[in-house]
Amino acid sequence: MAGVWVLAENRDLTIELLNIGRDLADKVSARLTAFLPGDRDRGQEYIDCGADEVLVLPALNPEQTVDAYIPVIVDEGRREQPDIFLLSGTLRGRELAARIAARLDTGLCSQCTALNIDEKTGLLVMERLIFGGAGIQKVVCQTRPQMATIAPRTFEPARRQNREGKIRELPASPESAVKILERKPKDRAAGSITEAKVIICVGRGIEKQEDLALVNKLAAATGGEIGCTRPIAEELHWMPEDTCIGLSGKQVKPELYIGVGISGQIQHITGIRDAKVICAVNNDDQAPIFDAADYGIVGNLYEVLPELTRQLEKITNK
Ligand SMILES: Cc1cc2nc3c(=O)[nH]c(=O)nc-3n(C[C@H](O)[C@H](O)[C@H](O)COP(=O)(O)OP(=O)(O)OC[C@H]3O[C@@H](n4cnc5c(N)ncnc54)[C@H](O)[C@@H]3O)c2cc1C
Known about the structure:
This protein is α/β, with parallel strands linked by helices.
């Protein structure tokens, strides 16, 4: 067996993939390889977290996007023929995964929630949620590599211990068809909620778009991102559609989710069931969101939010 590969766009996500990657590699007695975009200095950390080999991807020039890595990874894939290839299920990771899988002429199972090795066949068994989380689908892939994307925080980060491994630099990326012409700072509301550790989610309890300022302040005090329910994004258009959480929006896994003015219909709750701690603020003590919440505040969000923000700012000395 050639090995297990992991690729994520930043350190934290790579460390999570190294944990599950090491587990799978041990089960099939294979080597674990991690890709490292640009920063060679981090190689030893990845080895300490379980990698046997780190492949350093060349630094990109300012005009290039990560898309330039695709031919380099595909060439390496054709040469080394890995058996399993795991990528982080971020927006960019999912795009890279699909394009790499197509070029390697293999399958791809997206947003897996569990990965195991079938003891009889030695195949990777990839599990993912279907029907809005009501069912679990098990997928096996007959082609190689067996590729999967994994949403951030599905697995705990790997623990660091002294290990030895190899660091190898990959050749420079060829000219890419895509060039960056201009960079604009991201709108705060459009931060990535799938990667956020704290999410303040806003629902129809908010009366006017201007009142989102209250939610922004709470998000700033917690270092969180802002998400919303479908009516806020798709009916009122007060927030971008990619911030909608739920069945037809994003599935999120924050450590802390605070839902304000949200009733808690099943189509929304489906998107937050993997949140570690759920808090809800609602003026109706019968709102269904309280059934899903670990902590609930029955009250008017226009009074609760400023007070919550004030208290948090006191704690964090902001
Ligand atoms: C096929 C399908 C897919 C769907 N997909 C999604 C999805 O992905 N995501 C999603 O969110 N929805 C989705 N929906 C819609 C979903 O069913 C609900 O309609 C929606 O989640 C309700 O949004 P809400 O909680 O913001 O609004 P509401 O249900 O109107 O709730 C507003 C809440 O705010 C409270 N409130 C009012 N004023 C205050 C105040 N001053 N202070 C505190 N609380 C207050 C009220 O008590 C109420 O509980 C989907 C529906 C369908 C049919």
